[in-house]
Amino acid sequence: MKDKLRVAMFGHKRIPSREGGVEIVVEELCTRMVEQGNEVTCFNRAGHHVSGVEYDKPRQEEYRGIRLKTVSTIDKRGLAAVTSSFFAALYSAFGKFDVVHIHAEGPAFFAWLPKLFGKRVIVTIHGLDWAREKWHGSIASKFIRGGEKNAVKYADEIIVLSKGVQKYFMDTYGRETHFIPNGVNRPEVREAKLITDDFGLEKDSYILFLGRLVPEKGIRYLVEAFKNVKTDKKLVIAGGSSDTDSFMEELKELAKGDDRILFTGFVQGAILDELYSNAYIYTLPSDLEGMPLSLLEAISYGNCCLVSDIPECTEVVEDKAIIFRKSNIKDLTEKLQDACDDIRKVGKLKEQAADFICDKYNWDEVVDKTLALYGEKSR
Length: 379
Fold this sequence. Notes:
By secondary structure, the protein is α/β, with parallel strands linked by helices. The protein folds into two domains: 6-183 and 362-375, Rossmann fold (3-Layer(aba) Sandwich), CATH 3.40.50; 194-360, Glycogen Phosphorylase B (Rossmann fold, 3-Layer(aba) Sandwich). It is built from 14 helices and 14 strands. The protein has helices at residues 21-35, 80-94, 112-116, 139-154, 163-173, 194-199, 219-226, 246-255, 269-278, 293-300, 311-317, 329-341, 343-360, 363-375; strands at residues 6-10, 39-45, 62-63, 66-71, 99-103, 120-125, 157-160, 178-179, 206-210, 234-238, 261-265, 281-284, 304-308, 322-324. The strands form two sheets. Strands 3-4-2-1-5-6-7-8 form an eight-stranded mixed sheet, with helices on both faces. It has a six-stranded parallel sheet with strand order 11-10-9-12-13-14, sandwiched between helices. β12, α10 and β13 (304-308) form a beta-alpha-beta unit. The longest helix is centred in the C-terminal third of the chain and has 18 residues, at 343-360. The radius of gyration is 21 Å and the shape is globular.
């Protein structure tokens, strides 16, 4: 695009941050858009890091050329996203922006506000958030559903990250959407040093889950299945809790009696890189996903992956991973055991992994397609 655009983004918690996949996506998009000469403002939430105050960072007004504005937030479960999104929508509506890009269904509830003031509104659906277990039967679930409907009604364009969600929007609302999956960067593979010192982990000595510890990620099944696997390898569950620690405590109770299961808590930086770089296999046993960035990252490090058969995972891995039946502990146990026993099979999948995923998902292409949507005529 030749003309410089003034872009506002909200719906994420804050950047820079690895609190979730949305935050990584927003940072990748914004930094590249700025590099292409666009002006980008991100509206960050106030409040504490989702994994605890110890991970809080000082507020910034600028990051890698992105303007950062922290908006008022009621830092309570169910209210943080609502209040921060409302104020972000308000600032976006009255600010000098050409495009307002909203991330996730809940924040899209306020898509009408910038639209009312003549802004071009883009919404990215990162997943069907109303279906998450933590919102089941709650007012929050109804609010998120309302956000989905407002995205359909007010957004000039909707971006989806999977073919399944694209079909859902067409079947449910008759609404066309744009399939623009996330990208991935080719990382530097690191030797096991910090993880050896901190956790006693060495190359290929562990099976890795890395992500937010929330019920829909299927970690309950993973712990129950792993307890029945005959192996000396450890199961490393890396990630922080989301909103409350109750699910983390439930998992630790489930893992009691098996000292092969290790909880690291929230990880970032060099430790995260080392965990990805040295795993025997990476597993993502999710019941529900948008487009799992952690899976893209794991494969980019050259990992053999074991994933559930939900479309959001199988679309990513194609035939380059081991797949088990969603929610099926018996099948997961068998696939884990087979992977532990068949070193050759795991090695073959590792050899193909990084080139396959880095060729398939490219951030620069994602940004070019997104900017093209920004510049199209309004609905």
